[in-house]
Design brief:
The protein has 422 residues and is α/β, with parallel strands linked by helices. It has helices spanning 19-29, 64-69, 72-88, 111-121, 139-143, 146-156, 171-184, 202-210, 249-254, 283-296, 314-328, 341-344, 351-365; strands spanning 5-13, 35-36, 49-51, 100-105, 162-165, 190-197, 237-238, 240-248, 261-270, 305-307, 337-338, 367-368, 391-392, 397-404, 408-415.
């Protein structure tokens, strides 16, 4: 019998508000958390807008040694994990730790610390031959993203499989998909699944400026992220973390856990087309959606809400609009679709986890978040993109999609749980 996978715990650290409640309040209020970047002087860059997390790590419960040792990415991961595990009511000392796995979804690693440390050992970039004696004693941890999932595993006491999933902007959704497979195949009963990213740094700004992927709407940061709007001009970088505790259904029911949603379908595809480009017809994303629906044994008409990738680039918005029409047919015109990146920016490898959490909360609360800043819809994006205000809407099945540089396309399906666990 196929093992069922459910979500029993959620944690979030996102722009706009502390914790899971702050995250959901930001989304349902339609409030944007995008602003002029404060982490460094952004004036030399084309795009000077970001969606930053306001974090005092000491006030949030980290020690002074944690702050010195852990990259900002790892701090995000540790804090959202603590909230997610607590929300799940998971008492690790009452579990077999070898049956608890950890998975991290991340795209660009410990960017902020690596950039800072390079400046230090090269004396501000002056020396080609760097001086290792100037480096932080934790530089190696910053160099390998696996150090972050190891930190999460150590803090949760998990002794099962541990993995890092890094597939660009689909890393978060792919991490959830991989975690679900670990449960289904029997390798774990519980998977602490954390997606985290702290990419807002000068090197990242330079990378995105080079390909003109980020917005140049610097004079109005609060409305800079405009998915599906005719006036959009690029994405807004974000940061943050989400944790989803995935659990085998019977295991969750036996301990009386609250269940937000069930993971019923997952699929990923590659377009083998272009590192950053997308085809207009959307067949690659449609293939991932079709495969996820097939795994879930659901018809397109079963989908009640679509959480779009919605990055705010013309190419992406039109690609996924076409994909929804291909996969969902006429139902695409009836189902509400929205992009939370309009409010919290695009946190690369973390955002898929935040979007999956938003889908679980939409199922839980009967509310779908809006697409902020959508005043002038692109005529080629003619679906119901829930403009400006959240909407009361009973969601039995939510579809979340992602699209990543390199040609990655991912679809994840969550459903209202059945069978007594709620």
């Amino acid at each position: 019998m196929r093992r069922r996978v459910v979500i029993t715990g959620l944690g979030a650290l996102a722009p706009g508000g502390p914790g899971l409640k702050g995250f959901w309040d930001t989304l349902t209020s339609g409030r944007t958390a995008t602003r002029t970047i404060t982490a460094y002087d952004p004036s030399p860059f084309r795009s000077r807008v970001g969606a930053e997390v306001d974090l005092d790590p000491l006030a949030a419960g980290l020690s002074a040694q944690d702050v010195a040792r852990l990259d900002r990415l790892a701090q995000f991961a540790v804090l959202s994990t603590a909230e997610g595990v607590a929300d799940a009511g998971l008492l690790v000392d009452r579990e077999d730790p070898t049956r608890i796995a950890t998975v991290l979804g991340n795209a660009v690693g410990c960017t902020t610390s690596l950039e800072r440390e390079f400046a230090r050992v090269s004396r501000g970039g002056r020396d080609w031959l760097v001086d290792h004696r100037l480096a932080s004693p934790w530089l190696h941890d910053h160099f390998v993203p696996s150090s972050v999932v190891a930190e999460v595993a150590r803090r949760t006491g998990a002794l099962g499989p541990a993995a890092v999933v890094s597939t660009g902007c689909t890393s978060g959704l792919d991490a959830v998909g991989h975690a679900a497979e670990l449960v289904r195949e029997g390798s774990a009963d519980v998977v602490v699944t954390t997606t985290a990213e702290a990419p807002i740094s000068p090197i990242t700004s330079a990378c995105f400026d080079a390909i003109h992927a980020t917005t140049a709407r610097n004079d109005d940061p609060a409305t800079a992220s405009r998915p599906f709007d005719r006036t959009r001009d690029g994405l807004v970088l974000g940061e943050g973390s989400a944790t989803l505790v995935l659990e085998e259904f019977e295991h969750a029911r036996a301990r009386g856990a609250h269940v937000y949603a069930e993971v019923v379908g997952y699929a990923s595809r590659a377009n083998a087309h272009h590192m950053t480009g997308l085809t207009a017809h959307g067949t690659e994303m449609a293939a991932a959606i079709d495969a996820a629906l097939a795994e879930a044994r659901l018809s397109p008409e079963a989908v009640d809400y679509v959480n779009a990738h919605g990055s705010g680039t013309t190419m992406n918005d039109r690609h996924e609009t076409a994909a929804f029409k291909l996969s969902l047919g006429e139902h695409a015109y009836r189902v509400p679709v929205s992009s939370i990146k309009s409010m919290i920016g695009h946190s690369l490898g973390a955002v898929g986890g935040l979007e999956a959490a938003a889908c679980a909360l939409a199922i839980e609360h009967g509310v779908v978040p809006p697409t902020a800043n959508l005043h002038e819809p692109d005529p080629l994006c003619d679906l119901d993109y829930v403009p400006l205000e959240a909407r009361d809407h009973r969601t039995g099945v939510a579809l979340s999609v992602g699209s990543g540089f390199g040609g990655f396309q991912t679809a994840l399906l969550l459903a209202r749980p059945t069978g007594g666990a709620r």
